[in-house]
Design brief:
By secondary structure, the chain is mostly helical. The protein has one domain: Cytochrome Bc1 Complex, Chain D, domain 2 (Orthogonal Bundle), CATH 1.10.760. The protein is 76% helix and 0% strand. This is DUF3243 domain-containing protein.
C-alpha cells in the first residue's frame, strides 16, 4: 500500500522525512521550502488517494503562492507537534 492511500500513513511518512531533514541540520525555513515543493508536485501531478488529500489539493489549487507556503508550513508543524 502506498503512503498516499492512508492519510495517517502519509503523516507518518512526512514526519519521518522532517526528522531526517532536522537530523541533517536543515533549518525550519529550508524544511518548509521543501514541503512547499513537495506539496506543489503532489497537487499538480498526483491523483489524491483519500478525502484528506483531495481537500488539500483543492485548497492548494485556490491558494496564492504565499498561502501554499503557509499550508506546507502547517503540514510540517502538524507532524512536528504530533511528536511532542
Amino acid at each position: 500500500m502506498s503512503v498516499l492511500e492512508n492519510f495517517q500513513e502519509w503523516k507518518n511518512f512526512l514526519s519521518e522525512r522532517v526528522n531526517q531533514a532536522q537530523g541533517l541540520g536543515m533549518d525550519q525555513n529550508t524544511i518548509s521550502d521543501l514541503a512547499y515543493q513537495l506539496g506543489d508536485y503532489l497537487a499538480k501531478d498526483v491523483d489524491p488517494k483519500n478525502e484528506q488529500e483531495r481537500l488539500l489539493q483543492e485548497l492548494w489549487s485556490v491558494a496564492s503562492e504565499e498561502e501554499q507556503k503557509t499550508i506546507a508550513g502547517l503540514m510540517v508543524k502538524m507532524v512536528n507537534d504530533g511528536k511532542k
